[in-house]
Structure formats: structure tokens, C-alpha cells
Amino acid sequence: MKRVNEIFYSLQGEGFYTGRAAVFVRFSGCNLRCPFCDTSFEDYREMDNQEILQAIRQYPARFVVLTGGEPTLQVDEEFTACLHREGYEIAMETNGTRAVPQGIDWLTVSPKTPFCTGAALAVDSCNELKCLFDGDTPVSTYGISADHYFLQPCDVGDVQRNRAIMQKCVEYICRHPRWRLSLQTHKIVGFK
Predict the structure, then answer these.
(1) In sequence order, what are the residues at sequence separation of 6 or more whose Cβ sits closer than 8 angstroms to the Cβ of residue 133?
(2) Which residues does residue 65 pair with via DSSP β-bridges, in sequence order?
(3) pTM here?
(4) How many CB atoms lie within 10 A of CB 136?
(5) What is the pLDDT of residues 90-105, one digit of tens each?
(6) Is 38 a catalytic residue?
(7) For the segment 8-49, what is each residue's pLDDT rounded down to a tens digit?
(8) 34 labelled catalytic
(9) Does 126 qualify as catalytic in the annotation?
(10) Crossing angle for the helix pair 77-85 and 49-57, nearest 10 degrees?
């Protein structure tokens, strides 16, 4: 059984696949406690692989994003094989502190190392490295090699501070063009 916070259908709001229709499976629970986390872990439903698959099937997209919380706490190779048998492409968004199961087609790692104690990385490569940018913490790849490198301005809940962080982020990327800007378009545009 897996603890599922929610399953919903929307557009990917950030990173490489921004704007792509996707079914999101948000798992409950995380091994970190980030101060800026926007996910509630108290409410969840226990579901087995077939119940999750049944919920996913009601949507037309063949792209499934496994997120959380921390999905590596619950996703295993049996689950990814189940999704692949049904013809789904699987993306996972992880903090990178745990081994990733086989069968993930697109891996996004968003390290929380500078923000949380106990956030030592267990992943050294991915498709997409998405680092939070707060304007103060030095930018790093944390030793992870990636196909694509993104900086995402951290939303600190203060309009003036967010504007300053965004400006610093843009300036940083202009000086270091290896990085690309990732915005949380779902928050900006107002969709889930």
C-alpha cells in the first residue's frame, strides 16, 4: 500500500516539461522537513498499485509525474513496471537523498542540501537538476551531472523579497548560461 496525498490532472508547471499535460501522483511523507514546503502530509489515502492505476486511467495524458513529499519512500520497481505495462511515461521529482527505483523515464532532482540537515545526496546523475535559488546560498550542482540545469527562484512569501530574488536569479543565469530559469508557472497563472 502506498500513501497518496492526491492524484490530479494538470499541466507541468515547472522545469523542462513546463506546459505538458500530466497526471500527477503526489505521495504523502518526506524524509526532510524543508521550511518552504507547500505539501500537507497529514491527509492521505492508502492505495495499492491497481487503485492508483485506475485513478490515472481516467485522464487522457500518457505522462505521469510522481512527486511528493518524497516519492522514493513509496515508489518501487513493481509500481514503475505496472505503469510501463500500461504504456505510461514516468517522470519523478525527488530531493535526491534516496536511491531511485528502476523504470523512471525522466528524473528531476531538486537538492535541499543547503536548506535541511540530513539532506545528503544519494543520486549523482539525472535528466534535470532543479536547484532552488534564494539569492544568498551559493549555486551548486552538488556533484550531480544532469542533461539540463535549472534555477528556480524560491518563493519566500514576501512580494518585495521575491522580486529581488527573481532579479538576482536572472542576473546569475545571464552570467552563467549553463543554467536556465524555472518558474512555478502553475502558481503564476493560477492552476494546480
Answers:
(1) 139, 151, 152, 153, 154, 165, 168, 169, 172
(2) 24, 91
(3) 0.94
(4) 9
(5) 999 999 999 999 999 9
(6) yes
(7) 999 999 999 999 999 999 999 888 887 767 666 778 999 999
(8) yes
(9) no
(10) 40
